[in-house]
## 1
Amino acid sequence: MAADKDKADPIILGDPPDSSDNQVLPFAIEGMEVRGRAVRLGTVAGQILAAHAYPLPVARLLGQVAALTALLGSIMKIEGTFTVQARAKGAVSLLVADFRSPDELRAYAEFDEEKVAALPDAAPIRDLVGDGHLAITIDPADPGMERYQGIVDLAGDSLADCAAAYFTSSEQTPSEVRLASGRDPVSGNWRAGGIMIQYLGRQEQGGARISDEEKEESWSRASILLDSIKDEELLDPALTLPQLLYRLYHEDGVRVFGAVKLKRGCRCSDGKIEAMLEAFSTKDREDMTDDGVITVTCAFCNRDFTVAAA
Ligand SMILES: [Zn+2]
């Protein structure tokens, strides 16, 4: 019998076999020019957030950033990395998550412990981050392709509002986003979830079977229904994503497409750390050396790398 220490980390429970955890599910609402995506993070949220001892409001916000990144990153049709980064001047100064195709998600946050401790657990995003901006970047794996970056101010009552404002203004696509993150009341494990819907009606060419008025009305209905979801429903491990979408849009009918499965992934490696250190001067490397080695900690996964000082 294996010793206890050989067992997998007991904090992270496995995914229930029929769960919708750790996936993004694209969908379309029948008869409407509305497309959407839903995301659920179970163990992936747990692994990302458990790597650091984040205070509750920081973990909650970072879980939402991770869910948003999965929602948006999985839209990428090219191979590459999709990054959502919020830089701000408040108690939380940095929130960053990236999705690397086809399925890897990671995230971390930087914050001022004392300032965060002075805020209530349920502090809204504007109290946590203060003034700042949200940047969305696509780095194609093909070096011949151009990098894309879009930026929006961190305004609004929630991260979801910021993201919706970004799509509505920069892409001229009316969008609504809902995001939630929290601990499962039964297991205590972190979970995150979200849904985004986009109105494609204004992009349609010809084919005027549905009047503009009907299109606007259906978008308004889809938005109001989205707004009716509770955070608990976005996170509930017993409610699968298809069940959640059916609950929301069953009157119109909803069609789901192939899910994108997600896993927690980090790209840190000995080789990358060594290459990073080589960019420093000999003097800087000497300053970093302690007992003949340089220790570098990966900001994302918190893994320590020890490199012998040359
Ligand atoms: Zn790492």
## 2
Amino acid sequence: MIGRGIALAVALVAAAGAARAQDQELVARGRYIVESIGGCGNCHTPQGPNGPLPGQHLAGGAVFDEPPFRAVASNITPDPETGIGRWTDAQLALAIREGKRPDGRIIGPPMPIELYRGISDRDLSAIVAYLRTVPPVRNAVPASEYRIPLPPAYGPSVTAVADPPADDPVARGRYLAGPLGHCVECHTPMAAGGARDWSRTGAGGQPFPGPWGTSVARNITPHPSAGIGAWSDVQVVRAVTGGVSADGRRLFPPMGYAYYARMSEGDLRDLLAYLRSLPPQP
Ligand code: HEC
Ligand code: HEC
């Protein structure tokens, strides 16, 4: 009897240990996404003249003042009063992937929901698990104002999204540049009517005004003169992770170079494979 009890206790402890290891793996994956390719803090952590404000990691408050909106980045720390601390995991997941808050209000731009709809189930759980571990910061953020109508939803409910195949660098790179990293959001021109012209993915052209003046998203397709077709892999990686163009010019925000600098070598390789696979755009 006693022997069986001990065996059961040992099995339960082992199971709890395995579950904890799995949780830790999920949190580590979430931290990697949020702090590198996802660059959530590039919008959600307020910046001072010397970079992200200390003690304000993901605490929101940055203002995006553009003709169609004055959007304020939300506090996405687990503070129960001013952040997402009272939301369930499912509510947080729905907000990130589909732009729906627990009270039904839709999340507006520039949060790139159109692309976040493609975040895989596993990565979405990882992001949620990591956000739970971030230190809560009390920071009440004013509501955004939209002078354009927001859609009632960004599309039908997303039921299941699989990870990209591990043995397909271009597919993995497409996932990194789209749903996880939203490179193609900034680097794809708008068509008439306000939607992105995905037939010209990577062609650049969108202006980004800010304290730095106005930077214009560059052509990152393999076109030999208009794009990065003549650049070496090292030059592309230096631009993405170091903010230095092939000719040595320092690149301006809002691209989150410091976040991309934390990407793994494997992810950078896959990202390159995808960029090299894009149809060259003049
Ligand atoms: C390009 C800027 C940008 C990026 C990148 C971005 N967000 Fe946001 N996010 C915003 C803005 C602005 C809002 C508020 C929009 C509004 O008020 O409707 C927001 C809202 C949210 C909300 C709703 C919170 C609330 O209290 O209403 C969540 C959750 C969120 N973002 C999570 C994330 C996560 C996780 C990432 C990274 C995977 C991310 N965001 C990346 C700009 C961004
Ligand atoms: C928030 C918008 C934004 C996002 C997201 C973004 N970029 Fe950029 N990117 C820009 C802008 C704007 C520039 C031009 C900056 C300048 O000229 O000073 C730029 C410059 C570049 C350059 C340098 C090109 C040149 O001719 O010098 C490369 C390469 C690049 N981006 C690739 C990427 C990749 C890959 C990703 C995703 C991992 C990405 N960008 C995400 C806005 C963005």
